[in-house]
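Quick one, probably user error.
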């Protein structure tokens, strides 16, 4: 699990990104089994929503990212550098909030 704690005062917009090495990712609804697995993570007061991102080729056993309820999730164009001097197109998973601070943003990565 990744949990970002945002400190300060007042209403702010925040974005977190998970940068990927390629473009093999799909946004979808989380299964009830995936939500149950995320709830077993021992972090108090985190409610995971129904948004999920599946990373990898379709039809394979892939990691799935679940997002805390209230986060807005989308895919963004990005770049990946597999080695010095090389750049390839890729995607990033972006998750956003607009909230009063202090606040937190959490994602669970299920393997």
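Nope, works fine. Designed sequence:
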């Amino acid at each position: 699990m990744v949990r970002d704690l945002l400190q300060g005062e007042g209403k702010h917009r925040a974005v977190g990104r998970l940068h990927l090495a390629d473009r093999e990712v799909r946004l979808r609804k989380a299964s009830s089994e995936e939500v149950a697995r995320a709830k077993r993570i021992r972090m108090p007061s985190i409610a995971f929503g129904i948004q999920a991102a599946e990373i990898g080729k379709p039809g394979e056993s892939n990691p799935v990212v679940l997002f805390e309820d209230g986060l807005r999730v989308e895919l963004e164009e990005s770049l990946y550098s597999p080695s010095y001097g090389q750049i390839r197109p890729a995607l990033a998973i972006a998750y956003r909030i607009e909230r009063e601070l202090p606040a937190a943003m959490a994602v669970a990565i299920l393997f």
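The radius of gyration is 15 Å.
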